[in-house]
Amino acid sequence: MPRVVFTSNLQRHVSCPACDAAGETVSAVLEEVFEREPQIRGYVLDEQGELRKHVFVFVDGQRARLSNPVDEESEYAALNLGHFGVKMRRSSNDGATWEEIAVPAYPPQPKSDEKTPWKLVQIWALEADPAETLWAGSIPGGLFKSGDRGATWILIDSLWRRPERAEWFGGGYDHPGIHSICIDPRDNRRITVGISCGGAWQTRDGGETWNIASHGMYAEFMPPERRNDPNIQDPHRIVQCASRPDAFWAQHHNGVFRSTDGSKSWQEVTAIKPSKFGFAVAVHPHDADTAWFVPAVKDECRVPVDGKLVVARTRDAGKSFQVLGKGLPQQHAYDLVYRHGLAVDASGKRLALGSTTGGLWISDNQGESWECISTQLPPIYCVRFAD
Q1: I want to staple 118 with a disulfide (CB 3.0 to 4.6 A). Which of 54, 106, 319, 373 is the partner?
Q2: SS (H, E, C) 267-291
Q3: Residue ranges of the domains in the chain?
């Protein structure tokens, strides 16, 4: 279903929240919006039902007329095919068929002593903002965007050429990588990215400028004098609450952290159990105090504690945690859950969990119990809900 987003300019004059609306044309989609939000109509259409002189409509980044058809939302998949390289696919029919699209490409590498190659190794994160701009986080640490459904990609040069990038290094891979992209639902120009190992970075102007955003995290793997350096932190995964966007959660290499001021500062959450190490985190879209984690023993022993696969849930902003394992393997379990292997749906009630041993579980009650869907899939790198 198309997502309708109004400019901040219009929002200064009238209440016009972003919303989903059905319709085969731009006009039909807008009519459904006007039925729910009648106060918007007069700001968008004139007395003849035409777009006002200074009002423009864009569909998938392209200027459109009221009569233009509206395509269904697309799904995107990023593939790492080893010898055949990185590939991307797009589906416009709920996955029935897929077409190949362009992959991000780095510019030629200048002659220098830099050890990080200017070459796409993997697409590690893929997100879309309400305007259907795609954002791709990659190894070796570049952020790309596409305004034409993946037909072309642009490297965000302002982040790639930051002098601090020279200190980033690999966390789990040989080179640094962007694994988390959080787009503020209030303003899609405000984006926060998580980098292993390069901390968190944030832009408030669509990628024109960037600021480090991982103050408060600490790295036990660094010498004492650099333990608190925000530029070399290893957040394994960062997520943002949809209804309270200033609230973030992070599963870090050295613990769990939370921010309530838009990632300006982070505080450690020490009540997590049965351990503080892990990769995945999900936050309830309507309750910033509720979040889920999948702990493992430690860096040197990346399996569930005591051989029991469990999910740790907090409902009080990290003051306490419940360890949930009903329906999950509780003996001889060696399932590791990767950074993107845990997801919560738009309602906040249903969770999906996928592991490195090919196990897939679903919970319909916020993790209280789990139903096994399969134990025979290949290693699962990512689970997502098609909301």
Answers
A1: 106
A2: EEECCCCCCCEEEEEEECCCCCCCE
A3: 3-64, 73-267, 270-387
User: What DSSP designation does 380 have?
Assistant: P
- Provide the CATH topology of domain 270-387: Neuraminidase (2.120.10)
Angstrom CA distances, 129 to 3, 23, 189, stand at 10, 20, 9
Cα separation, 214 vs 253, whole angstroms: 13
In a 13 Å sphere around the CA of 323, the CA atoms on its Cβ side amount to 14
Please give the full DSSP string across 304-333, using - where no structure is assigned.
-GGG---EEEESSTTS--EEE-TTS--SS-
54 backbone φψ class: left, alpha, beta (φ>0; ψ -120 to 50): alpha
Contacts 24+ apart (CB under 8 A), 64-71: 64/26, 65/26, 66/25, 66/26, 66/27, 66/30, 67/25, 67/26, 67/27, 68/25, 68/26, 69/24, 69/25, 70/2, 70/23, 70/24, 70/25, 70/26, 70/28, 70/29
Q: Find out whether 255 and 275 touch, Cβ atoms under 8 Å.
A: no
Give the pLDDT confidence of 271-288 residue by residue, as tens digits. Answer: 999 999 999 999 999 999
Q: Give the integer Cα–Cα distance in Å for 337 and 91.
A: 26
In the numeric block, the tokens 């040069």 are attached to 157
- Is residue 214 within 8 A of residue 195, CB to CB? The reply is no
Tokens of 22: 């059905």
* Distance from C-alpha of 297 to C-alpha of 307, rounded to nearest angstrom: 9
By percentage, how much of the chain surpasses pLDDT 90? 79
CATH of domain 73-267: 2.130.10.10
pLDDT in tens, 57-83: 888 767 888 988 776 678 999 999 988
Beta bridge partner(s), residue 342? 353
CA 130 – CA 251 distance, rounded (Å): 26
Asked if the domains at 73-267 and 270-387 fall in one CATH topology, the answer is no
Rounded to two decimals, what is the model's pTM? Answer: 0.83
Q: Which has the closest alpha carbon to 381: 333, 345, 335, 339?
A: 339
Over 70: is that where the pLDDT of 43 sits?
yes
